[in-house]
Write a structure and sequence with these properties.
The protein has 112 residues and is mainly alpha-helical. The protein has one domain: Methane Monooxygenase Hydroxylase, Chain G, domain 1, CATH 1.20.58.90. The chain is built from 3 helices and no strands. It has helices spanning 4-40, 45-85, 91-111. Helix 1 (4-40) packs antiparallel against helix 2, helix 1 (4-40) packs parallel to helix 3 and helix 2 (45-85) packs across helix 3 (91-111). The radius of gyration is 19 Å and the shape is rod-shaped. Pfam families: TBCA.
């Protein structure tokens, strides 16, 4: 049974994972710039290899994060639908709708 409390938790989960995804994307940009800079300056091959490993690890986190976000979005949608069928309204419902729209927009922009 869906409750407003569960809806709030699922909404917060989506927001947190979305924030995490943005953080990983920024980290990849930073690490890629750092790697390119090291290559330009002719850094030690060992240091360069270590930096490339850091970059690869950061890149691996993005698909995992997206998968978790898709799962959290599906759960949020299901809970919201159940509460809407019960004709529930309130700030939590609007917040959930807004979060769903934000996540879907994020997926559309990254797929295009």
């Amino acid at each position: 049974m869906a409750t407003v409390r569960n809806l709030k938790k699922k909404t917060s989960t989506c927001k947190r994972i979305m924030k995490e995804l943005h953080s990983y994307e920024k980290e990849v940009e930073r690490e890629a710039a750092k790697t390119a800079d090291m290559k330009e300056k002719g850094a030690d091959p060992y240091d360069l290899k270590q930096q490339e490993n850091v970059l690869a690890e950061s890149r691996m986190m993005i698909p995992d994060c997206r998968k978790r976000l898709e799962s959290a979005l599906a759960e949020l949608n299901a809970t919201l639908t159940e509460l809407e069928e019960e004709n529930q309204e309130g700030q939590e419902i609007e917040d959930a709708r807004s979060t769903i729209a934000d996540v879907e927009k994020l997926f559309q922009t990254t797929e295009a």
